[in-house]
Design brief:
By secondary structure, the protein is an alpha/beta fold. It has eight helices and eight strands; from the N terminus they run βαβαβαββαββααβαα. The protein has helices at 18-26, 45-51, 65-75, 94-102, 149-153, 164-174, 196-199, 201-218; strands at 5-11, 32-38, 55-58, 80-83, 89-90, 110-119, 143-146, 180-191. It has an eight-stranded mixed sheet, sandwiched between helices. It is globular.
Length: 219
């Protein structure tokens, strides 16, 4: 099998959990490469990733997660691409499941599976944020892209912090494309004190408003 999945991890001060994240990727039984885009961490994130054999690139200035994903796409060697957060975990055989689902129909360009939250053992007080049911609509750790899709729809908007899914869906719609959704879990999403989804909830609503406003202006 010559297909390669390039996995981008945008990082910032993630030394606490990134080793577990990388280990969950390295256990996968599918040809892959790991690209870490570090946003000027002040801890040992980049050093840990490099010591584990990842390709590590450190930004010259802080640019945020979306810019990290875009840089990872541009640097990737694979014909498939996936991103995962620095604190989440791929389940066993996640890459193979996503790839096999993609092969079911040559028209599939993006396959999105489900993720499941788990409360990090070191922050039991965050259990109230831990939805026990699998869910979708989060890209990280769940979504496999044919890299060629970015030549059609463009890269992620770097002027947003979270609204990547709604922006992606709107741009796919412009080109008559869609996300194929799969009913299996590929990622365990860690809930803890500095979880990205919790600390950026207000920005998420602002990004949604910005994206919808831009859509109305373009009409």
């Amino acid at each position: 099998m010559n297909d390669l999945i390039s996995i981008t991890i945008p990082t910032f001060n993630g030394e606490k959990y990134i080793e577990e994240t990388i280990c969950s990727i390295q256990k996968q039984n599918f040809n892959h490469e790991i690209i870490v885009i570090d946003d000027l961490s002040s801890d040992n994130t980049a050093k840990i990733a490099a010591s584990m054999g990842c390709r590590v690139y450190i930004n010259e200035a802080q640019k945020g997660q979306m810019a990290g994903k875009n840089r990872g796409i541009n640097l990737s060697k694979g014909n498939y691409w996936l991103t995962i957060d620095q604190d989440d975990l791929l389940v066993d055989n996640a890459l193979e499941m996503l790839y096999d689902e993609m092969q079911k129909n040559e028209e599939y360009k993006i396959v999105m599976a489900k993720i499941k939250n788990f409360c990090s053992p070191d922050t039991p007080h965050r259990k109230k944020f831990t939805n026990p049911e699998p869910f979708s609509n989060i890209l990280t750790g769940s979504t496999l892209f044919k890299k060629e899709i970015f030549d059609i729809i463009g890269l992620f908007r770097e002027d947003t912090i979270t609204g990547d899914v709604i922006d992606l869906i709107q741009r796919l719609d412009i080109h008559g494309l869609s996300i194929h959704r799969a009913d299996f879990i590929t990622c365990n999403r860690r809930i803890h004190d500095n979880n990205f989804g919790i600390t950026n909830q207000k920005d998420e609503y602002k990004d949604y408003a910005k994206i919808l406003r831009d859509k109305l202006i373009k009409r």
